[in-house]
Amino acid sequence: MIPFNFDYFKPETTEEALKIYSSEWKLGKKVIYLSGGTEVITFARGGKMTFDTVIDLKGIPECNMLEMQGEELVIGAAVTLNRLIETNLFPLLSKTARTIADHTSRNKITIGGNLMSKLGYREGILPFLITDAVASVIGHEGTVVMPVEKLAAAELADGQFLTHIKLSASNLDLPFIHSKRTRSSKVGYPIVSLAAMSKEGRIRIAFSGIHEHPFRSAVVEGVLNDTAIEDEQRVDKAIAKLPTDITDDFIASKHFRRFILNKLLSEMNTEWEGNR
Ligand SMILES: Cc1cc2nc3c(=O)[nH]c(=O)nc-3n(C[C@H](O)[C@H](O)[C@H](O)COP(=O)(O)OP(=O)(O)OC[C@H]3O[C@@H](n4cnc5c(N)ncnc54)[C@H](O)[C@@H]3O)c2cc1C
Question: How far apart, in Å, are the Cα atoms of 263 and each of 60, 224, 239, 258?
């Protein structure tokens, strides 16, 4: 049970959502957006989050789009992980989504909720980071289209919410790898999770689990694509170029994370040997 009272709204348009946000905010209320609600409900039950007003984005058509528009795939923020998996329009995203939570939870968890999660993993963003996807965010100042990378590292401004993500169709069927290691079971937060794609002979790669937020690094990619470096040294050199310290927490020590990362990158190199 959620141990406090709150008002619940389910608008049918983006304009209505923004209007509710500002009128509630002007009354001094703490307003939050929600899509799948799994995290919001869990946090509220556990006393980690409070709010006066919830705006449920699931009724907004832009947030429910899942379609090709010309040469682009458009994915609404309120599309559930299971819908992404079942339609399989973007196989790398389907494979990544299949490793997040269990089947029942994925009926509720949305891609927007995963990308905006307060937990640092946000594995659903990895396929978007390596395909140069863009996010449409709406707020009182209008719509802003930004590289998905910006969502990975920063919070949205007050009142803004994610409506959809777009990526070029040319990225949908490229060779890819998704690898994830958890502490024990198949379902669990990642020690390391990576999504990689081979495009025009170059590897693109993004990581979750090893830093406070998911990331893609041009420097790491540069090393992994440098064929002048001996195969055996390339992975070590790439790890040495990671942007920050590796996470050290209750899931895994930084040494174990480094070891797993080394293993996953070596496996990727072996799988793609001669492919580049
Ligand atoms: C059993 C279980 C296992 C899990 N395992 C993993 C895992 O392995 N890897 C992983 O990455 N995650 C994992 N998660 C975390 C999970 O992916 C996130 O908590 C979940 O994605 C939240 O999705 P939701 O749609 O329910 O979000 P909600 O609860 O609706 O929202 C989550 C947050 O995002 C905000 N938000 C939601 N939609 C929008 C929007 N459109 N615009 C702006 N803000 C928005 C909300 O205000 C809230 O702060 C797991 C969760 C469960 C329950």
Answer: 43, 14, 11, 9
Nearest to 207 by CA among 218, 197, 196, 222: 196
Report the nearest-CA residue for atom 16 of ligand 1.
Answer: 114
Structurally, the chain folds into a number of domains equal to 3
User: Using a 6 Å cutoff on CB, does residue 159 contact ligand 1?
Assistant: no
Say if pTM beats, i.e. exceeds, 0.70: yes
Residue having the nearest C-alpha atom to atom 31 of ligand 1: 113
* Whether the Cβ atoms of residue 44 and residue 92 lie closer than 8 Å to each other: no
72 located within any domain: yes
CB 100 within 8 A of CB 93: no
Q: Tell me, in angstroms, the distance from the centre of ligand 1 to residue 39's CA.
A: 5
217 with 241, same domain: the answer is yes
**Domain match, 137 and 232 both:** no
Assigned token pair, 7: 């008002």
What are the phi and psi torsion angles at 113 (to 5°)? -65, -35
Confidence category of residue 34, pLDDT binned at 50, 70, 90: very high
**Who wins on pLDDT, 276 or 168?**
168
Query: Atom of ligand 1 at shortest distance to CA of 122?
Result: 11
Is the pLDDT score of 221 beyond 80? yes
Q: Are residues 164 and 198 in the same domain?
A: no
* 214 part of a folded domain: yes
At residue 275, does pLDDT exceed 70? no
The two structure tokens encoding residue 240: 């040495």
